[in-house]
C-alpha cells in the first residue's frame, strides 16, 4: 500500500529505526528493492530524481510504482521526489502519485549556486503549504551537501560546486535548523554533515573531521521531533569495488559512509537514509563480471538477473542494519 513519508517516519521514530531511501530509474531496481523488502518484512521508500523522471518518463515510473504495489501488497511503499528544484517539479510529482517530495532549496535552481536562507525557507515553505493541502509530505534541506575534505569541490560525477565553500556552509547550523523547521513546517529535514553524492566521498576511512556525526547528535537534541535525513549515504563497499575493478571497471581508491556511522545516526534521530550509488555499483559490478566471463552472451537478462540479485543483497543488508526489517 502507498503511504506518505510522514506516516512512515513517524512509525520509524516511534520504534527507533531508520529507512533507506533507494533511488529508482528502472524495473530491475524496483523488483530488486521490493524482493529485499519482502524477504525482510521492511517498509520502503522509492525515490525518483528529476533525472530518473526524464529517463523513464513520468507515465512509465507511475505505472511501475503501481505494478510494484500490486505485486507486493503487504509492503508499505512511500514514493518520493528526490531533490526537487522548483515548485513545479514538486507539484507534478504529486500529480503523478508521489506521496512525498523533497524541495531542495539549499541550491538555487541552477543546481550549483548555494542559496541564501531567505530563498530556501521561502520556496520550501511554499511547497510545504501546497503539498500539505493534498496530503503529501515534504523534505527540506538546510546546509550544502559536500565534502569537508575539498570544500565541496567538484566531485567526479559532476555533483559539487565550482570553487570551494566555507566549512560553515557545509555543516547545518542547529539554531538555523530550528528556525527553518518552524518556518517551513517540513516533515523531514536533510542536513549537511560532510557527506556528498556519488562514489568519491572520502579519500580515507572517514573520521569526525570529515564526517560530522556529532553534529547529528546536536541537531537531534535541538530538534527532537524532526525526522533527520542523511543524503550521500552510500557505503561504497570495498567488496563491490573489487568486483567492479576485477572485471574491467576503473574506480580509484575511495571510501563511503560506514554502515556503523549511519546506525549511530539512527540512534540520534536519522530516519531516512538516501542510497543510490551502492545499488549502481553493485549492479554494474555484477553486470560487468558476467559480461567479462561470457563474451558471446547477448541476452541482457543473463546480465540483469545477477545484477538484480546483487542489488537485493545490498538492500537486505541495509534493511537489517538500519532496523527497518520486521516493520512492514
Ligand atoms: O541526487 C543524486 C541521486 O543519486 C540521483 O542521481 O540525478 O543522476 O538520477 P541522478
Ligand atoms: P549516494 O550517492 O551516496 O548514494 O547518495 C544518494 C542521494 O543522496 C540521493 O539523494
Ligand atoms: Zn541527495
Defining traits:
zinc ion binding, binds 1,3-dihydroxyacetonephosphate, binds glyceraldehyde-3-phosphate, fructose-bisphosphate aldolase activity, TIM Barrel, alpha/beta, single chain, 8 strands, 12 helices, lyase, EC 4.1.2.13, binds zinc ion, about 325 residues, eight-stranded parallel barrel
Question: Explain this structure to me?
Answer:
The protein is α/β, with parallel strands linked by helices. It has one domain: Alpha-Beta Barrel (TIM Barrel). It has twelve helices and eight strands. The protein has helices spanning 5-14, 27-40, 50-56, 58-71, 87-95, 117-133, 174-184, 213-222, 238-246, 259-266, 277-293, 300-321, and strands spanning 19-23, 44-48, 77-84, 100-103, 137-142, 188-191, 227-230, 270-275. It has an eight-stranded parallel barrel, surrounded by ten helices. Helix 7 links the parallel strand 5 and strand 6. Helix 7 (174-184) crosses helix 8 (213-222) and helix 9 packs parallel to helix 11. The longest helix is centred in the C-terminal third of the chain and has 22 residues, at 300-321. It is globular and about 60 Å long. The termini are close together. The structure holds glyceraldehyde-3-phosphate (G3H), 1,3-dihydroxyacetonephosphate and zinc ion. Glyceraldehyde-3-phosphate binds next to helix 3 and strand 3. Belongs to the class II fructose-bisphosphate aldolase family. The active site is at 82 (proton donor).
- Can you tell me the residue ranges where pLDDT is under 50 for at least 5 consecutive residues? none
Biggest sheet layout: 8 strands, parallel, barrel
Per CATH, the class reads Alpha Beta
**Helix proportion of residues, in percent?**
40-55%
Structural class: alpha/beta
Radius of gyration: 19 Å
Number of helices: 12
Order of helices and strands: HEHEHHEHEHEHEHEHHEHH
Percent strand equals 5-15%
Q: Given the C-alpha coordinates, what overall shape results?
A: globular
Hetero ligands = glyceraldehyde-3-phosphate, 1,3-dihydroxyacetonephosphate, zinc ion
Number of strands: 8
CATH architecture: Alpha-Beta Barrel
- Spatial gap, N to C terminus: 10 Å
The number of distinct structural domains comes to 1
CATH fold field value: TIM Barrel
The average pLDDT score comes to: 96
Strand order of the largest sheet: 1-2-3-4-5-6-7-8
CATH superfamily: Aldolase class I
Amino acid at each position: 500500500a502507498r503511504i506518505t513519508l510522514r506516516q512512515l517516519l513517524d512509525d520509524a521514530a516511534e520504534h527507533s529505526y531508520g529507512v533507506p531511501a533507494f533511488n529508482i530509474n528502472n524495473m530491475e531496481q524496483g523488483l530488486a528493492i521490493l524482493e529485499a523488502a519482502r524477504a525482510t518484512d521492511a517498509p520502503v521508500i522509492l525515490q525518483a530524481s528529476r533525472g530518473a523522471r526524464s529517463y523513464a518518463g513520468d507515465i512509465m515510473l507511475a505505472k511501475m510504482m503501481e505494478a510494484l504495489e500490486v505485486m507486493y501488497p503487504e509492503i508499505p511503499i512511500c514514493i518520493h521526489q528526490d531533490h526537487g528544484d522548483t515548485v513545479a517539479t514538486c507539484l507534478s510529482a504529486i500529480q503523478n502519485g508521489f506521496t512525498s517530495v523533497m524541495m531542495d532549496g539549499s541550491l538555487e535552481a541552477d543546481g550549483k549556486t548555494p542559496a541564501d536562507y531567505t530563498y530556501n525557507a521561502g520556496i520550501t515553505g511554499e511547497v510545504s503549504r501546497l503539498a500539505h493541502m493534498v496530503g503529501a509530505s515534504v523534505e527540506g534541506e538546510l546546509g550544502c551537501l559536500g565534502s569537508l575534505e575539498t570544500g565541496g569541490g567538484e566531485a567526479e560525477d559532476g555533483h559539487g560546486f565550482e570553487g570551494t565553500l566555507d566549512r560553515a556552509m557545509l555543516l547545518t547550523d542547529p539554531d538555523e535548523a530550528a528556525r527553518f523547521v518552524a518556518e517551513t513546517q517540513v516533515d523531514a529535514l536533510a542536513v549537511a554533515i560532510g557527506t556528498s553524492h556519488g562514489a568519491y566521498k572520502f579519500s580515507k576511512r572517514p573520521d569526525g573531521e570529515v564526517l560530522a556525526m556529532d553534529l547529528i547528535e546536536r541537531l537531534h537534541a535541538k530538534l527532537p521531533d524532526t525526522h533527520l535525513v542523511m543524503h550521500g549515504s552510500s557505503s561504497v563497499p570495498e567488496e563491490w569495488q573489487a568486483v567492479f575493478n576485477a572485471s574491467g571497471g576503473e574506480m580509484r581508491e575511495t571510501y563511503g559512509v560506514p554502515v556503523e556511522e549511519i546506525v549511530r545516526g539512527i540512534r540520534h534521530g536519522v530516519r531516512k537514509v538516501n542510497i543510490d550509488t551502492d545499488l549502481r555499483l553493485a549492479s554494474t559490478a555484477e553486470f560487468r563480471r558476467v559480461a567479462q566471463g561470457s563474451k558471446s552472451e547477448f541476452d541482457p537478462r543473463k546480465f540483469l538477473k545477477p545484477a538484480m540479485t546483487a542489488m537485493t543483497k545490498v538492500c537486505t543488508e541495509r534493511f537489517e542494519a538500519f532496523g527497518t526489517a520486521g516493520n512492514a
